Write the structure tokens for this entry.
Amino acid sequence: MARDRRTYAEHVRLDDRCYDLRARIPSCSSFGSEEVDFDGRDDVSDPKNWSPTYKWSLLAVVSLISLSINLAILTSAPAIPVILQEFDSTSKLEATLLVSIWELGEAMGPLIFAPLSEVYGRLPVYHAANVIFIILSICAAYSTSIHMLIAVRFLLGLSVVSLTLNACIVGDIFEPEQRGRALSLMGALPYVAPCVGPAVGGLIADGLGWRWTFKLTAVITGILELLLMVTLRETYQVVILERKTKKLRSLLHKPKLRSRHAPNPNVSMALWQSFIRPIRLLMTSKVIFMVSICGAFAMGYLYMTITILGPIFQQVYGFSERHAGLSYLGLGSGMFGGIILAGAFLDWHLERERRKDNISPEVRLPPMILGYTMVPIGLLCFGWLVESRVHSILPIFSTVLIGGGFAGVAISAWSYLVDAFGIYAASATAGAQIFRCAASALLPLAAPGLMDRIGFGLSMTLFATIALVFAPVPVILMKYGKRLRERTLQGPSQV
């Protein structure tokens, strides 16, 4: 039928099928069942049908924002001795909290932002959180006491939204066979931070003062947020379909039209269901609990390593504050390489399994199995190499295993949860993130005291042994994950 623009009635057949009205209303599905959905490959309102150029550009921008936030975590790490000196503190606890308190905030932030994004969409939540982060970065730069700085660092972690929503945006706009590469880009840029963050932070703290590490974070994130305001469109299909449905009810005079993902009309009840969903999923879904265990150990040991690297190389190997950042190069290189390799493998493996008619989310898990094993091996090597006082390059090389192992676990977990939980990926990711961030905050607190008592080698052996006890978890998840997922209630009224 010709697509002229005289009256919208000329575009509606007797069976109430609405065709693409372009500028006037979005394209829509057949209304025989009074259910509004996307219209396949030609429906430009579906984020998966957006142009590849736009999708990859958008992914680059949100990845750069995540990079600037990761830099904020790490650039201040080499400056901790200077910060303590300025505020007349000698507390090891306060030194550790300056890094690890961020993760306690990150453990709580997803419980706020993930539910909000499932009610109001990704776009307003992303922008609001970024503006809060910029304001808090300025507050950190002008802190007047060590306790104020620790409190602001906690709030900075609380305001981080990219860790939860970036993976969900990838799931919103990319098909499953493209998500491996997309997630690798999303992860690769932020994980440049451990390569350059501490080194840059050491130079900034030495040349301009530690406060400039936070000022530059505010400036860079502010510029990227302005760019995001220009480029980001709503990607969450539930919100998009609801907006489409409201337009069609008015234009077609059909008040009974409902979105395929019709939200709860009671906003307060919808918010309450969204806020309890991450906790409920964590407590009722065995697969999320198991992913959380693997992620907690991998991320906890990563942050523990980040926390102890600078002091160890300054005390044991005599590195200066300026050169202490070089000790992070192995960790960052491992993460960067691991993300790239894991992403490429996931897309190749998914295509291979698809030819065998196996498209279950569990095909995303092999990098988790390998990565989870690499982390404790890296810890063992690092601890005993430092204990033996061998050349500094060898312990740095051993941290490649820790960084690469974490990358394999992280990208595998992201892609698995996005594939397995669909429109509830934000809640699933938020639930899994609780354990990860809690471990990232607590494990760094335990490491310094334990190393002082029993030495580097035995301390790392103990941590590695605890991790290896749970090594069968990702294998069990890969073998029985589908069966476990089928036992989890995933309907809208239940999840």
Notes: The two ends are 42 Å apart (CA to CA). Residues 1-32, 489-495 have pLDDT under 50 and may be disordered.
